[in-house]
Amino acid sequence: MRPTAVTLHGRSVRLEPLGPEHAAGLFVAAEPSTFRFMPAQPSPWDLGGFLIYIRRLLALEHTNCYAVASVADNRLLGVTCEMDIRSEHRGLEIGNTWLAPEVRGTAINPEMKRLLLARAFETPLFGAAHGAHDPATGPPGPAIRVQLKTDERNTRSQRAMERLGFTREGVLRRHMIVGDGVQRNSVMYSVIAEEWPRVRDTIDARLAELQR
């Protein structure tokens, strides 16, 4: 049984399953430079382009996408996804993430990462409806690995991942072609189940610092 998207609530941020109804708010939140390092981006740059962008994300296989909203005022702030969901191996990737420029460096990114990682590592995310090993869906239980990746040129994203305690694994050379036509190298990070308590404490400390 593949996990499905559910609304996740934090102190500063709420993640809700992405849909066409979010297009207008995301159009207001974004700017073209937001998508410089990303393969999926709105085109044309208007409300219709954001509707197309959302439909493309929703059509991706093995992916759940979320709109990122502010708890304080319900303003939309960006998008993040659970990607490459591999139920048989109890693993997934957090990616296709972008945030409005004004909330970068705030509690928003650490908290949404914490929400998604806690969902992955602290709930029976995989095979939850089965209770026994089904070869078609894999063994039931929480994730054993969550991975993240970013453009090698995106040093701000790399610093953020390392600040939160994610393990840098290496570089995938010429991994994808992104919106500016560059043959992108991707830097891969991960958290495995045994590391989650340490990473959770690191994220909580960062949130305590940012949410004072």
What's the gist of this structure?
With 212 residues, the chain is an alpha+beta fold. It has helices spanning 23-29, 47-59, 108-122, 155-163, 196-210; strands spanning 8-9, 13-17, 64-70, 76-86, 91-99, 145-151, 167-177, 183-192. It is built from five helices and eight strands, in the order ββααβββαβαββα.
Give the topology string: H per helix, E per strand. Answer: EEHHEEEHEHEEH
The gyration radius over C-alpha positions equals: 17 Å
Overall average pLDDT: 92
**Order of strands across the widest beta sheet?**
1-2-3-4-5-6-8-7
Residue fraction in strands: 25-35%
Q: Helical content, roughly?
A: 25-40%
Q: Please report the number of helical segments.
A: 5
Structural class: alpha+beta
The biggest sheet, with number of strands, parallel, antiparallel or mixed sense and barrel status, is: 8 strands, mixed
N-to-C CA distance? 40 Å
Assign an overall shape: globular
Write up this protein.
By secondary structure, the protein is an alpha+beta fold. Helix content is 28%, strand content 29%. The protein is built from 5 helices and 8 strands. The chain has helices spanning 23-29, 47-59, 108-122, 155-163, 196-210, and strands at 8-9, 13-17, 64-70, 76-86, 91-99, 145-151, 167-177, 183-192. A hairpin with a 4-residue loop joins strand 4 and strand 5 (91-99). The longest helix is centred in the middle third of the chain and has 15 residues, at 108-122. The protein starts with 7 loop residues before the first strand and ends with a helix. 35% of the residues are buried.
